[in-house]
Amino acid sequence: MVRIAIVGTGGIAGYHVQKFAKARGCRIVAACDVDDTRLRAFCAKHEILGAYHDVDKLLKDDKIDAIVNSTPDRFHAPVSIKALRAKKHVLCEKPLAMNYAEAMTMVRAAKKSGLVNMVNFTYRNAAALHEAHRLIAAGKLGEIVHVDGSYLQSWLVSIQWGNWRETPGWTWRLSKKHGSLGTLGDLGVHLVDFASYAVGGIKAVNAHMKTFTAIKGKKQGIYTLDANDTVLMQVEFKNGALGMLHTTRWATGHLNTVELLVCGTKGAIRINLDKSQTKLEISTGENLKPAIWKEVECRPVPLIQERFVKAIRTGKPDQPDFLRGAEVQKVLDACFVSSEKKKWVKI
Question: Are the beta carbons of 29 and 55 closer than 8 angstroms?
Fold first, then answer.
């Protein structure tokens, strides 16, 4: 039985509890948070017996085998490295770190530990993504030429997920001072992983970011609202394909829409995770010239949480690991440089 502790009991922590409930051979035995009220409420809701306010004390507990690092972004590296040194396996939230150099420090710590290390790129749970990866790798679409990907949210204009002005769990994501990399770090990180896992590595990027200060204001309570809201990324993939990846929190009418279109010389695929995570559409073969799309049901895939537990139990590492997280982080770093200097940046 793999005994797991949740470090950081904010919004995403409940998601992890739900997903680990579907994984065999594990149990959530403890949680940790500096906010006592939030910690107590979380433990009571999920019937978790162990409650810690100090992560160092939690990591000394030999009855805990692994942690889920669901702290705010700026704590991902220090908490994960401490956990690895304490001989705890780590599933870390994204983005892996605040920059590529910090991410590589985590990679080295993970390699030295020999422990299971994974990043929660949520959309790796979508069967459609894995089928797209398989089809492209097998050459079913021919030479990849054009890619279009988007991740659209609307919580800056919608209250479906709560009012961001009244919910610190959302507000901190708009503030650099509170460790946010903005929409790029929150949504763009998923989009970069999603697109490059399907198509292949990215070798250059030309990014433009914007913070709509005139609309939402400069401050909200203790938070300075200076993190990017919208990101446009022109990208060139290592296989020569060109693409546009874009993401925003101002996408009115879209709660959480992830889409990907990949066009090749022998066919094309498109994914819309709002419609289905287990189906994609493909135009190839006899359907190519008349531009007819066929829906394909994709093979089921295990959740990241299930694969994390299996990796611990079998001793066989799985993806996406910290090195993959660092690869994505390198693209994010290039986006910041590109947007600031207004030029293409090689990865």
Answer: no
Q: Which amino acid is at 55?
A: V
Q: Which tokens sit at 18? A: 């739900």
Summarize pLDDT for 108-139 with one digit per residue, the tens: 999 999 999 999 999 999 999 999 999 999 99
State the Cα–Cα distance between residues 202 and 196, nearest whole angstrom. 7
Above 90 in pLDDT, residue 10? no
Query: What is the mean predicted confidence (pLDDT) over 32-49?
Result: 97
Burial class (CB in 10 A: 0-12, 13-18, 19+), 47: exposed
